[in-house]
Amino acid sequence: MKLDSSEASTIGAGVYKSDENMIPATGKETDRDGEELFLPPLNFSMVDYGVFRSGFPDTANFAFLQTLGLRSIVCLCPEPYPQANKEFLKANGIQLYQFHIEGSKEPFVNIPEDLIRDALKVVLDSSNHPILIHCKRGKHRTGCLVGCLRKLQNWCLTSIFDEYQRFAADKARVSDQRFMELFDISGFKQLPTPFYSAKN
After folding, report:
1. Three-class SS of residue 29?
2. CA–CA dist 87, 7 (Å, integer)
3. Residue 31: its pLDDT value, please?
């Protein structure tokens, strides 16, 4: 749907206001032209071939997620996975890997390296691709996991931190950056950039 800036304004992610009506982008809604709307989750981005990142997806994002042909989802949140999301995963044959990492605003709370390591192993296994990595907002926990992946891809720390800050913005945490800097990748095989095999 295209609305001229003079006749429309964005109210929230995927909801447009015009003089004629309100059009919410939820589930499999359609626009005025009858075309299906696809709304990506908050902070959605491609990390590498077959690897994506985002904030927590909800029902409004399901049609979009179907277009990715996901095999797996890595959830970095400790809360129980919502029933609607579980049903979506089951209906689409998507495997859930949940790592219970607490979100914290405290500057000196340790990020559990063992859980990040385990999650990274799931992401590195190309049989799980295409895969979506998410936490609540797609900023800190997801940013740390992606940053550790970037270290395996031989990215310099400046580039890793730049990518982290693009998603975290003014919520960037020195403790997250320190975690990525000190994360020991010696137990992992170094990866080419990009690492995903198109054969899968």
Report:
1. coil
2. 38
3. 58
User: Strand pairing of 72-75 and 51-54?
Assistant: unpaired
| pLDDT, tens only, 45-64 | 999 999 999 999 999 999 99
Cα–Cα dist 37/28, whole Å = 7
| pLDDT of res. 136 | 92
Q: Are 52 and 132 in contact (CB under 8 A)?
A: yes
Would you name the residues annotated as active-site residues?
Answer: 135
The DSSP element (H or E) to which 145 belongs, if any, is helix 140-152
Q: What is the pLDDT of residue 172?
A: 82
Angle CA 147–159–112, to nearest 5: 20
* Residues sharing a CB contact under 8 Å with residue 115, sequence separation 6 or more, in sequence order: 99, 100, 101
Residue type (1 letter), 148 = C
| pLDDT tens-place string over residues 73-112 | 999 999 999 999 999 999 999 999 999 998 766 555 578 8
Average pLDDT, the chain: 81
Q: Identify the helix (H) or strand (E) that includes residue 87.
A: helix 83-91
In single-letter form, the type of residue at position 147 comes to G
What separation in angstroms does the CA of 7 have from each of 34, 37, 76, 128?
A: 20, 19, 40, 44
Work out the angle at residue 169's Cα, subtended by the Cα atoms of residues 107 and 13, and round it to the nearest 5 degrees: 120
